[in-house]
Amino acid sequence: MKSFTQKLALTTALVSSIALGAVSAQAEPTAEVLHYWTSGSEAKAVKALKEDFEANGGKWVDAPVAGGGGDAQAAVLRSRVLSGNPPAAVQIKGLSIQEWAEAGALGDLTKLGEEEGWDDVLPPLLQKIVKHDGKYVAVPVNIHRVDWIWANPKSLAKVDGEPPRTWDEFNALADKLQAAGITPLAHGGQPWQDGTVFETVVLGMGGAEFFNKAFIEKDMATIKSDTMKKVFDQMRKMRGYVDDDFSGRDWNLATSMVMRGEAAMQIMGDWAKGEFLAAGKVPGKDFLCVPTPSNGGYILNSDSFAMFNVSSEDDKAGQALLARLILGEKFQETFNLYKGSIPARMGVPTEKFDECAVKSMNDLQSASESGALVGSMAHEIAASGAIRGAILDVVTEHFNSDMTSDVAVERLAEAIELAE
Question: N or C: more exposed end of the chain, with fewer CB within 10 A?
């Protein structure tokens, strides 16, 4: 049986290669855009891109796939590529970009990147994500910070609580909230959300070196260590801090619980901030943004658009236009103000960004300099889809059962070894 990569190579060999820097001047720029931005703030952000694209003469074909985290979209994308009918532009990230590039499914954006000067405006860490063999194969839209606590200040005030700086402080605060009849942690019982919480605990309890040894190097001594057992001990505590109806809940509904005061906190990337802002909430007043306990760590997530191999001149023109707009200063500012993230492009003015975004920018710089910056496992920056899936399976099973921490680390090690 042919491997997935071999199948893709055979399929994409039938599709003509793409040269985005040189498209016919007569072409009508057209782009079918596959994405999973369907919540309120996300939909508003992608609408801004659509309007910008159309204002510049493009024809946008919207192809949204509901489901935060992109797992549902990934299945649709694989089916489309294998059938020889890929969308022109696809929201994609991390190591998935490299896997599709290895399979020969992505076009070469390098000439366009040279014309637009992308090497001069993109941080080196993002260039590593969107380049394959030194060639641009995708364009980054933003930088998201994953390790945030979003808190309702009124809920905290009811128990004289302060945002936690350590996991012990988090537990003490959660216990006080629970005793006062307030749900401490708004959470959605979906594997990617479980993984989001898990990786913040891994960073907080183990540090950046431990995080990378576990998720990038897949070091078995690290995975089976006492520190990892303590991580699962903390996850067991977290399970006790969520409400009974968490199973299957979408992340934005959990954000709404914090917004309404039904829950005090949510651990989620800064796309959650977009929900608060879309509802007219003011940071520092109506909600608080505090990094999860990590002693200066930062978990990076980044959304990108990859341009898949297409044959028509209209599609090629659409891809070129879309890529130019995505990395333009105007869109980088507009999109990230809506989305809650910070620009992927360096040098975008910060005046319009709120205090949470400015803190994210400053903390990103500090973490990068100190070596405490890591790529997200749960959001496919630091781990392949197979490794991520293996980790999330164990984390979710542990979170929804009475599995001990000792058993969890053994299961985690076995799952990662099988996935490699």
Answer: N
AA letter at 333: E
What's the burial of 311, exposed, middle or buried (CB within 10 Å: 0-12/13-18/19+)? exposed
The pTM is what?
0.82
Residue entry with tokens 């009124």:
154
Q: How far apart are CA 329 and CA 397, in angstroms?
A: 43
d(CA 120, CA 350): 19
Q: Produce one character per residue of 15-26: b if its CB has 16 or more CB atoms within 10 Å, e if not.
A: beebebbebeee
Helices (H) and strands (E) in the chain, counts: 19, 15
In the chain, where the domains are located:
28-145+301-356, 148-300+376-419
Closest CA to 124 of 106, 107, 143: 143
Domains 28-145+301-356 and 148-300+376-419 share a fold: yes
DSSP annotation of 39: S
* 168 token code pair: 């012990």
Among the CATH numbers 3.40.50.1970, 3.40.50.300, 3.40.190.10, 1.10.10.10, which is that of 28-145+301-356?
A: 3.40.190.10
Sheet holding 263-267, edge to edge: 183-185, 263-267, 148-151, 288-291
Residue by residue, DSSP assigns 78-136 as HHHHHTT---SEEEE-HHHHHHHHHTT-B-B-HHHHHHHTHHHHS-HHHHHHHEETTEE
* 28-58 residue pLDDT tens: 999 999 999 888 778 888 899 999 999 999 9
The DSSP 8-state label assigned to residue 308 in this structure reads B
Q: Is 139 helix (H, G, I), strand (E, B) or coil?
A: strand
- In percent, how much of the chain has pLDDT > 70? 93
User: Under a CB-based contact definition with an 8 Å cutoff, are residues 174 and 309 in contact?
Assistant: no
Q: What CATH number is given for 148-300+376-419 in this structure?
A: 3.40.190.10
pLDDT (tens digit per residue) in 219-243: 999 999 999 999 999 999 999 999 9
Q: At what angle do helices 329-339 and 313-326 cross, to 10 degrees?
A: 70
